[in-house]
Amino acid sequence: MSEQVAILQSLQPVLSTLVEAGIASCDGVLAQAWLVGPGDLCDSCPMRPECPSQSNCLHLVASAGVEGEAVDLSRRIPIGIGSLGRIPVSHKPLVARSGLDALGVAEPAWLARNQVLALAALPLEHGERCIGVLAIFSRNTLPDEQLRVLAASARLGAEAIGNVAAFRTLAADRNRLAAKNARLRSGLGLPPELETAAVTAAPEPALSPPIPVTDSPAPPPPPPEHPGTGVVLHTDSAIPLPLRSFAEVQRGGILRTLERTGWRVSGPKGAAAVLRLKPTTLESKMKKLGIRRPPR
User: Fold this and answer.
1) How far is Cα 11 from Cα 5, in angstroms, rounded to an integer?
2) Distance of CA 289 to the CA centre of its chain
3) pLDDT band at 238, cuts 50/70/90?
4) What is the reported pTM?
5) Side by side, which strands form the sheet with 56-65?
6) Domains annotated on the chain, with CATH
7) Sign (positive or negative) of CA dihedral 77, 80, 86, 90
8) DSSP state at residue 229
9) Which residues pair with 122 in a beta bridge?
């Protein structure tokens, strides 16, 4: 349990920014971030009879908006069960503009009291894995433009979450190799290497250029019952790592997209189309983040 707490503490700046951005991007009532994690509360979980394996489940890890502070963060949803639980398996977003009562995602009285008209539940994908779900309850019907903004926030947030987990794994692997090397050198009567003896934490992640997502180490294999899911709240180490801010993650994602599109912003093959943003919105973000096209 302490390991999971340490992981959540390192992810908290990203998670808080993610749910707050979800609220701000539409007339949001409540934003929730769920991450795939181990089945840790099976004995007391009210949904255990519905859970197919008691191995992985969605953990509610962050919340913002109406009653956000009062939401019980010990809540769990079995993978593959219910409207939200099926998203890590299908990798498909859920957008509901009517019939929310039947989805079982919130109490009907709460939905009516807060005049909730729509729900967007988006997969948080890192590489080929769905590592969680971002759920937004809104007082409007979530027009397509707002959905595009929410989808872009979910993509950037998932990249940040996945990169934090990847850096933790790299740190653990590096320290294990360093410890093994030190033991071997000691057994051979050799003096310790200065760099090996000083390994205590992961290297500072470079901000320029950003580290590609495809270079992240592979996660532990998922349970066979739910191919395509991955556990992000369980790693081999609890070493705290320096975090990039959400703005830095967003800047890195935009830069990589611009480089792939040859710095073309608009058009069917431009960066705005890839990120599902209006060209004017992307240009505004570029200006805010200090992104300029390099001289030719």
Assistant:
1) 10
2) 21
3) very low
4) 0.61
5) 76-78, 56-65, 28-38, 129-138, 118-126, 94-96
6) 2-161 (3.30.450.40), 244-291 (1.10.10)
7) positive
8) B
9) 134
